[in-house]
Amino acid sequence: MTNSNDTATAAAPPSPAAGIASAHFGADEPIFATHPDWSTKETGPRFGDPVWAASALRRPANKLASAWTLRFPQENPIWNLRLREIAFSLLNPHHRVLRQAGVFPAARPARFGTVAQTCHQLTLLTRWAIATHKPADLRHWADEDFDAFRDHRAGQVGPSSVTNAVTAIRHLIALAPVLTHGGPAQDPWPGRSANQVGRRPARIDFATPSIPPETWWPLLHAAWTYIHVFAGDLLDLRDRITQPTPAPTNAPRRASQAISQDYDQMLRAWLAEPANLIPVRGRAHSRNGAAGTVLWESLARMVFGPESLHAFNPSSPAAQRRREMVKPVAASGRTRIADNDKDSAIVSLPCPGFATVTRPDGTQGPWHTRITREQLAQELRMLRAACYVFIAALSMMRDSELQEIQRDAVTTHYGSPAVISRKTKHDPATPESRWWIIEPVAEAIAVAERLSGHPTHLFANLRHPVASSSRSRANGDPGINAAKAIDTFISHVNTHQHRTGLHPIPASRVRPHMFRRTMAILAGAEPDSEIALGLQLKHAARRALANRTTPGYYSADENWIAEFDTQLETAAARRLVDLLQRRRNGEAVAVGPGAARLHSGLDNTLAQLNTQPELRAHHADHRAEITLLRDEFTDLHFGTINHCIFDPAQAACQNALPTEKRGHTPLLGACQPARCRNSVVTDAHTPIWVAEEADLTRMLTHRRLAPPRREALQSRLADVQLITRALTRQENN
Q: What architecture (CATH level 2) is domain 370-554?
């Protein structure tokens, strides 16, 4: 079975297995007759057919038609028959032959995608067996032969794919009683799971990689710019050039006369625009006229669209009249040399009102001034990709779920915006489900709905935008190649950033399932996120709101750990900006053992702002201050009663830790704010310290305090007063 996404289903060559009959299944038996997804409108393939096209089964939108076909290996007729018997048994688990043989594969017919994966793995086994001269009769195979194939696959693919190969081999064992040429005599790996045989360890770290932050942020920014800024320009232009030719409005006129006068009106409007230049020949031609001759077909394409190239045909009196309207304008010099009809200047369309962007060189202007129909078609595909990227990233939907979104899918769910689609993974019933979304995602869905010409689905093939006399814009089958669309979008953004002003997107592998994983990492950083993620990821189990898969999704990987650390540093630096402003005015902003170091760091930041011209230019912009403060205070920890400028060598809290565990992070429970040289106290902490001083003073007035207790309170009061008296002196100064 070859699972190809690149070639459409074609007539299969005669099968070498055509002369080998199955001992159990008839050649005329229908393949999908008992399958719950079978459409009775189609007969579907039969067991003896060399190729099984699954057009009779409902195809998910994210699966290409070419992938919805089983092709069996042609190299060996015995293997060909064996794979057809395996596939038929998995698709018809209640067949009388299986029951009589005592074989019960499953309660429900296998999903077609599962059968395709099994046949793919067995096809690889077939080709390996032929290449290594293994016998076609599997009963003659030794356990070492299966081990050799497993090791062969392990040298090419990861543990997950090896596990799939092991699972496929075990289908040969389970279904051996209904295989004409038999199956393996025994399980080569008894007592071991497929994961163990495939050497895939128990899941500790989640296998799905995330999108690195340096790719994630510019990718989302580019997608949102296309949706929020560029979409209106592109869709308005598309609608303008694809709108049908105006119908006659004056009943007494003949239809041809009405259309002719409409053309005349369109030509007058076009000629009235001074920016419109008439295409002329730049050099003489023996048959087509002298230099300066108007290129009438090119002009017709520019004015009336590609379906009206004969609007200036000299055999028509109306066309002659239109030529006479053009000639004076051409004689005045309002022309453009364009000998090639395919010149972009000729076939391009003006882009009035397109959004203004700031380009990398600092200049500003429209992101398009003129655009060809080919370029417009490409930009519309980029808009479709942008909608896909943005919805996938912020909804955490699977590719199969996202591509099943249909028109009018936005609704509310428990009072919040949501989108309706179908859950297909691990659920043959494909139930309708809801995913919560935010307003920008709803906007992206609305743009995708306006962009799509498919009667039901939002993501479908787009046809070239051309003028049409019909209001319909029929598109191809629903579904897109999402991986290819993402790659093309990233390449397009990077290639045209000089025109769009978008940030370049670093090269990185980005696939649909990685959006779900990355957004889960970001959401997992929020408090109490596990239940919400379990619901949104559709991991909810019967008795819980999340299952054991959910923590694997939101656990931060190496791509995002550094990003979260940077965000914490930035948040800490942002809280220091107010202190920096006060320090600029000469104030002492903190007290405590570490106050001198805090003041020194703030002074260093002010010195950089004052001495570097490029920073002084951004003096009013807090982002420059935040960046400098983040670099100056790389390990600053904010607290309720004090702040910690963590320096392991001076940290009193580290004395409570074993030597090998010191120097990594502050030990908050062992903090001594009044004595540790990392501790600083600001006026924001003053109410807490004043309140504690008052409480300690009041408690010491009790006459019946035990001496040890009184001594402890007095010691604590002395520490507190070190801070409160310093705060009082600071306030007085």
A: Orthogonal Bundle (1.10)
Residues facing residue 335 across a β-bridge? 278
Q: Encoding tokens for residue 556? A: 């931060």
619 — pLDDT class (breaks 50, 70, 90): very low
Pick the closest to residue 441 from 461, 419, 413 (CA basis).
Answer: 419
Residues contacting 109, CB < 8 A, separation 6+:
34, 35, 36, 90, 91, 92, 93
* Contact predicate 10/53, CB 8 Å: no
| Predicted local distance difference test score (pLDDT) of residue 145 | 93
Q: pTM above the 0.90 mark?
A: no
Residue boundaries of the structural domains of the chain: 16-197, 370-554, 559-732
Which residues are paired to 419 by β-bridges? 410, 435
* Element (DSSP H or E) covering residue 124: helix 112-131
Query: 3-class SS at 488?
Result: helix
Residue 196: is its pLDDT beyond 90?
A: no
The CA distance from 71 to 67, in Å, is 10
Angle among Cα 366, 370, 371 to the nearest 5 degrees reads: 115
Interstrand relation of 278-280 and 335-337 (parallel, antiparallel or unpaired): parallel
Of the candidates 684, 680, 712, the one whose C-alpha atom is nearest the C-alpha of residue 696 is 712
402 to 58, 97, 208: CA distances (angstroms): 17, 40, 18
